[in-house]
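Exam review. A common question shows you a sequence with its structure tokens and asks you to describe the fold in words. Practice with the pair below. Do the first one on your own.
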Amino acid sequence: MNPENIVYRTAVWIIPLVIAIVFHEVAHGWMAKWLGDPTAQEERRLSFNPLRHVDPVGTVILPLGLAIAGAPVFGWAKPVPVIAQRMRNPRWGMVAVALAGPGMNLLLATGAAIAIGAAAALSGGVQPTGIAGFVLANLFNFLLVNVFLAVFNLLPMPPFDGGHVVEGLLPRPLAAQWAKIGRFGILLLILLLVVVPMIFPGADIVGRIVGPPAQAVIGWFLALAASIA
């Protein structure tokens, strides 16, 4: 397997991304069910079948384009349906549901770090090639993708999970106003990630806001891997 091959480069990013976002969404559904809302289960979204979670743009087109371009790969899946009113405590239930997704990504990143450390220990420090190299590349990118998704989704604005956390913490009158912003969540996302960087090339919002904390967390996980190796 040639790491410079475009199919190889795409696969080692898309596979980790799809797994990460599917687990992220299922975690939201699991938490909602545990807190009294079985909507995700009723709509068969508590499944690890990627086809049930695929968003044509966020799961396929955007990540594929970024992988081909050699840019950092990210994306999203169709949100798992959650009805707050069905939960025993709707307000705090939504906060817990929102945090479950990033929490799952950090748990997966921990597993990836342990696996990377174990692989390094077994290989004796020799860089693996072939199938083993492909698996290790997927593990490393799996760690990166999960950390990025966790930090990115904790941004305190709609439609991110961090926005739902803010809504739960605000006094009820302000929370109602804050929730209205969520109607324009996708437009805000496109504005921040696409339009603003096109108009102001130096305004790398993702790099400036998400990059530093993500790099710090990645450093912690790599230190964990090194301690195991």
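Now try the second one, then compare your answer with the model answer below.
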Amino acid sequence: MKSLIEMVEALDKVTPGIASEHTLFYGVEAKFYSARPKLTGELETEIAGLFCGGDGAGVTRGLAQAGAAGVRIARSLVERIGS
């Protein structure tokens, strides 16, 4: 997170206004509709600690489902780190 904050602050010097409480970050978008990795109920792949959500998992086609996948993954991670 510190690196992201530092990057936004640096970008704000080039493009004033970037460092705003309204600035959102989005993950990488990958659409492989035919790809269907083997996933657990927590959307974890066969590679421990690697989760796949949204369209990249090949199981969603819309923003609501992709958002729900992100929430499920986040909850799984929170449970694992025990916060």
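Model answer, second protein: Residues 63-81 form the longest helix (19 residues). The chain is about 40% helix and 0% strand. Full marks require stating both points clearly.
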